[in-house]
Structures are given as structure tokens and as C-alpha cells.
């Protein structure tokens, strides 16, 4: 204990001085700093969304007054929290030292948590500190940020810096799942649970302001996740414009207190009552989509009711005589995104009703629309699991050439992927594409055997996606024949391209041993360059995993001829180790025995799966 106390004393000395009192933080800044503050306000107004925070130049001083005259930390305070962040970077040798450090910093924050949370440096430091705090400590920070009865929550949540702190605090609720730290002995809610419920009440009372605010809306979305008991990865501040993919697959579930179940029901009801905001406003629409997504994952019965009520509301709106209001909403930027989510999460009866009573006969025209084509892609994907798909396919296939001419390749790709998933309409899809690309007749155009050899110079992303979908069809001999007409140099270009590598990998790994052997024959002489390529090496490893023993032996025989190059290359050295090429050189019989054993295991596993 004595050594830990000495460490804390050293840390207090290292921080040079305690956090200044609130009186000192409120001093007027210089004219130059006020000018910097004005420039910052312009940046916020122009920049708008995403929750990203602008990096301050080194020559800018910390502004004591920021947006709307809000007080900010002064210079010494900013320096203190910057050093706290540096100390967090260094880590702690044991939990005792970490706990004492956290208590020390929280003691300095006490009484001015709202001010610290809304300062850029203070916000970043608090976000990083909260995961090291106990749930009760997090609850106490939230209690101070929210003020009496949560009266300050809205101002902090709608601040570009403060909103991130509240989100970070909410996320710590997941750490209470496997413990009773956040529940008092008498069964009453713990500090953090009580503060989450308090925030929920403030959000419900000011729902319109929260969901339409670019920063406050993110807090509501995190709150929805916490109330249902699932969390995705935290928002990235490094590249706020980057769209998150596959968020649903990255979510983690945790247990929630009973009070959250009821609070979620209340919040969902309030959001439904204010659905008009979500239809017209893109920011509010994102909140509504989050509600539907988390309910679909954790509360499917509630989600089903919400989806039904949402569609009933949209269909009840007025439109031109004889025109479904849904056709209007599908072409609107904000409402179309909401409809994409609704379609993705809907059950078959709702999908069937939407198609039969609102979209039938209009699918092609919607697929040609610059906005409405995206909901049509979601509908095509959702229908693949049901008998609705053949009817939707028969209508969409009539406009394939027009859709291609409009440049909406996403619709075509999704149609092919749904054919692969459902196992239906695959022959019709392939014939339609051959006609659309004008290579159905004569037959030689399908493989380009009589075409002059033109080097492959560019690869289209959507073209890659389309071929990958077609590679999942039952009949893919046409694709493999076309692939075998490519020169070895073209195959290497394909293997080392970000989009093309997926095509080559899909075609080789799904081919029969005989078909794979013909492609690998064309690749001879390219294995070493592929091994030295970042993307090509991944294709080579995938090929190796699906290759027969004799095919592996041919690949290894070529690779060992470039031993020095492969061993020194940053990518190829992993290939050398994974393929056990040292064994191949010096212990050939043992290598052969290992490869034969792996091949038998793989065949047995495939037989079990099939």
C-alpha cells in the first residue's frame, strides 16, 4: 500500500497542479481566442453531422467560451486533462493503482463534470476514463452531468463534445450484466441504472428536439441500444464520414434490468407518436431505424407491431387519386431510408401486402429511380427466402437493359444474389444477362474465344459482385470457360485487384477438381508474384485450401524455386510458412503424408456437410 500511495503522490506532482476551480474557468478570453471561437462556430454550422470533432491546431489556445457562449476549460485545465489522457495511454501495473488514479481524477472533475464534458479535451479524456470506472462512479458522473432531476441532460447531450461523454457513460451499463454492482440491497435501482432511466424520461419529454438534433440523436440511438440490451462498436471519430457495414453482426448482447424493459416500451411509443419527424427528417429517421433494428434483435413481438403501425401510417397519407402514397415515400431521400429498414425487417405477410397492393406493376420504374432503386434492392433481398421472389423476378427481369442503362447495377447484382440464395430463376437470369450484354449470339461471344487478346486493365466493383453471385449458381460452366480464356497475366491482374481477387477466389474454390486444375494450369508461372502480392497471397491461400494433393504439389514445386524472394517478402513469407515449403524441400515424404491426411479430413468434413 505504501508503494501505491507513493505512486499516487508522484502522479499528483506530475500533473503539476490540480484542476482549477470553476471561478477561474469562467474568465474572459482574449480577443484572439474569441475570434478562434467564432471560427469554430462557423465550422460546426458548416460541418453539420457525424459527431466528428475538429482537431485543434497547436497554435490555437483553448477557448473559455464556445458555441452559444457556453463556458469552456481554460489553458491549465486543458493541460491537466491532456496529461491524464497520456497517463491512460501508459496503462497501469495493477488494479489498485488504476483505481486510485481514477478516484483522483474524478475528485478533480467533481462539481464541474458538465463543463469538462462539453470541452473537447475534457470530453475525450472522460470518454477514455469511464471504461475504467466502476458502474457507481459512472452513475455519479452522469448524475452530475444531468444536474437536478436531469434538467441539464438535454444541453449536454446536444453538445458536440458532451454527447460523446453521455454515450460512453451509457455504454458502461453493459458491464453491469454479470454483476449486482448496480443494484442496491433493497432491490432499488443502482446509481447508473437510475441515471439511465432519468435520461430516458428527459428524452421522452423533449423527443422532437432530441431526435432532430445532429448530436442529441446519437445519444438517443445509444440509449435505445442500452435499453434493449445490445451494443455495437462505438462510433469512430477518426473518419466520421465512413459508413459502418455489418453493424448488426458486430452487436453484443447483455442482460438488462426489468426497468429498462418498461422504459423501452415507453420510448418506442413516444417515437411512434412522433413518426412524422422520422418521415421528413434524415436525422430523426436514423433514430427510428435504430429503434426498429434493436427491437427486431431483442424484442421481435414489439418490432412486428411497430413495423405494422409504421406501414399503416405511411399508407394512410394522402396522395394523388389512384396513386399509392408509398410510391411517393419511396422516392424521398429521408423516408426511403426508413422504408429500406422496414422492408429488411418485415415478415412475409407484410412484404406480400406491400408488393401486391402498392408496388406491383411499378417495380421497374422504381428500380430506374435514383432514390427508389435502393428500397427495391432491399425488397429483392428480403423476398429471396419466400415464394414472393419468382413474381418479383418476373417483373424486374423485363427492365434489366433499362436498369443497366440507368447505371443502377446494385439492382442487377441483388437480383442475381437472390437467384443464388433462392435457387430459382437462375437459367433465366443468365440468359437475360447474356442478351443485355449482347453476347448471347453467336455462341463464341460468350467466352470471347475469337476476340483479339486485350490486356485486362480495369475491374468494376459491381461487375465483380455480379460474377461472385453468378459463381453460386448451379450451372456455372460458362463462367469457368470464360475464365480459362484469360491470359496468365490477366489472371494475375485479377488476383491482385481489390475487387477482382474475390472473383478469382470464388470461381476457383467452387470449381470441381477437374475445372480447378484447368484454371491452375493457366496460372502456372504466376504463383510467386501472387505470393508477393497483398491480395494475391490471400487468393493463393484460399486456392491452396481447396486444392487436391497433386495440385498443391505443383504449386509448391513452383514456389520453392523462388525461395529467397519468398522468405524475404512481407506477404510471401506467411505463404512459405503456411504451405510448409521448408518441409517440402527437405522432408518431402513427411510433407506428402501431412497433405494427404489434411485432404482426407477435408473430404470427410465436406461429405458430412453435404
Automatic annotation (TrEMBL):
InterPro entries: ARM-like (IPR011989), ARM-type_fold (IPR016024), NOP9 (IPR040000), Pumilio_RNA-bd_rpt (IPR001313)
Keyword Repeat carried by entry: yes
Region (Disordered): 1-78
Annotated Gene Ontology cellular component terms: 90S preribosome; nucleolus; preribosome, small subunit precursor
GO biological process, one term: endonucleolytic cleavage in ITS1 to separate SSU-rRNA from 5.8S rRNA and LSU-rRNA from tricistronic rRNA transcript (SSU-rRNA, 5.8S rRNA, LSU-rRNA)
Keyword terms, alphabetized: Repeat
Pumilio repeat intervals: 485-521
Residue spans of biased composition, Basic and acidic residues class: 57-74
GO molecular function: RNA binding
UniProt protein name: PUM-HD domain-containing protein
Organism this protein belongs to: Oryzias javanicus (Javanese ricefish)
Amino acid at each position: 500500500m505504501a508503494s501505491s500511495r507513493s505512486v499516487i503522490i508522484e502522479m499528483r506532482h506530475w500533473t503539476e497542479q490540480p484542476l482549477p476551480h470553476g471561478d477561474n474557468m469562467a474568465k474572459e478570453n482574449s480577443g484572439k481566442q474569441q475570434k478562434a471561437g467564432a471560427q469554430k462556430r462557423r465550422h460546426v454550422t458548416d460541418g453539420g453531422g457525424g459527431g466528428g470533432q475538429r482537431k485543434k491546431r497547436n497554435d490555437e489556445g483553448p477557448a473559455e467560451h464556445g458555441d452559444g457562449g457556453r463556458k469552456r476549460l481554460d489553458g491549465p485545465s486543458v493541460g491537466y486533462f491532456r496529461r491524464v489522457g497520456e497517463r491512460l495511454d501508459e496503462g497501469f501495473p495493477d488494479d489498485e493503482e488504476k483505481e486510485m488514479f481514477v478516484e483522483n481524477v474524478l475528485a478533480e472533475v467533481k462539481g464541474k463534470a458538465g463543463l469538462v464534458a462539453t470541452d473537447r479535451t475534457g470530453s475525450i479524456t472522460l470518454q477514455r476514463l469511464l471504461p475504467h470506472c466502476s458502474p457507481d462512479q459512472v452513475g455519479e458522473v452522469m448524475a452530475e452531468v444531468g444536474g437536478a432531476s436531469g434538467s441539464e441532460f438535454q444541453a449536454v447531450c446536444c453538445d458536440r463534445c458532451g454527447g460523446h461523454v453521455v454515450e460512453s457513460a451509457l455504454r458502461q451499463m453493459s458491464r453491469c450484466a454479470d454483476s449486482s454492482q448496480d443494484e442496491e440491497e433493497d432491490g432499488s435501482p443502482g446509481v447508473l441504472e437510475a441515471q439511465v432511466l432519468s435520461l430516458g424520461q428527459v428524452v421522452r419529454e423533449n423527443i422532437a428536439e432530441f431526435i432532430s438534433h445532429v448530436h442529441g440523436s446519437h445519444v438517443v440511438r445509444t440509449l435505445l441500444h442500452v435499453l434493449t440490451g445490445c451494443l455495437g462498436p462505438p462510433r469512430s471519430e477518426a473518419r466520421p464520414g465512413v459508413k459502418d457495414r455489418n453493424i448488426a453482426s458486430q452487436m453484443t448482447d447483455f442482460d438488462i434490468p426489468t426497468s429498462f424493459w418498461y422504459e423501452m416500451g415507453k420510448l418506442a411509443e413516444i417515437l411512434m407518436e412522433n413518426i412524422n419527424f422520422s418521415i421528413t427528417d434524415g436525422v430523426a429517421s436514423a433514430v427510428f431505424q435504430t429503434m426498429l433494428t434493436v427491437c427486431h434483435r431483442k424484442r421481435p413481438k414489439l418490432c412486428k407491431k411497430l413495423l405494422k403501425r409504421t406501414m399503416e401510417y405511411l399508407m394512410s397519407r394522402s396522395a394523388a387519386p389512384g396513386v399509392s402514397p408509398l410510391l411517393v415515400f419511396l422516392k424521398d431521400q429521408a423516408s426511403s431510408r426508413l422504408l429500406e429498414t422496414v422492408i429488411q425487417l418485415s415478415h412475409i405477410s407484410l412484404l406480400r401486402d406491400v408488393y401486391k397492393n402498392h408496388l406491383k406493376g411499378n417495380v421497374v420504374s422504381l428500380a430506374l429511380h435514383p432514390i427508389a432503386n435502393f428500397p427495391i434492392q432491399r425488397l429483392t433481398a428480403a423476398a429471396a427466402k419466400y415464394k414472393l421472389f419468382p413474381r418479383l423476378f418476373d417483373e424486374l427481369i423485363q427492365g434489366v437493359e433499362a436498369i443497366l442503362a440507368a447505371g443502377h447495377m446494385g439492382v442487377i447484382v441483388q437480383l442475381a444474389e437472390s437467384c443464388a440464395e433462392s435457387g430459382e430463376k437462375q437459367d433465366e437470369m443468365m440468359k437475360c444477362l447474356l442478351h443485355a450484354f449482347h453476347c448471347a449470339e453467336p455462341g463464341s461471344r460468350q467466352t470471347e474465344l475469337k476476340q483479339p487478346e486485350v490486356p485486362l486493365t480495369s475491374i468494376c466493383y459491381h461487375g465483380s459482385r455480379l460474377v461472385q453471385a453468378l459463381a453460386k449458381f448451379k450451372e456455372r460452366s460458362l463462367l469457368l470457360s470464360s475464365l480459362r480464356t484469360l491470359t496468365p497475366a490477366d489472371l494475375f491482374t485479377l488476383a491482385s485487384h481489390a475487387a477482382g481477387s474475390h472473383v478469382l477466389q470464388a470461381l476457383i474454390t467452387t470449381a470441381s477438381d477437374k475445372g480447378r486444375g484447368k484454371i491452375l494450369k493457366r496460372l502456372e508461372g504466376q504463383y510467386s508474384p501472387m505470393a508477393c502480392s497483398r491480395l494475391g497471397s490471400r487468393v493463393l491461400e484460399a486456392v491452396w485450401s481447396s486444392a487436391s494433393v497433386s495440385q498443391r504439389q505443383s504449386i509448391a514445386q513452383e514456389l520453392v524455386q523462388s525461395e529467397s524472394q519468398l522468405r524475404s517478402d512481407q506477404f510471401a513469407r506467411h505463404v512459405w510458412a503456411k504451405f510448409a515449403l521448408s518441409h517440402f524441400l527437405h522432408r518431402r515424404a513427411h510433407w506428402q503424408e501431412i497433405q494427404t491426411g489434411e485432404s482426407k479430413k477435408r473430404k470427410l468434413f465436406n461429405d458430412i456437410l453435404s
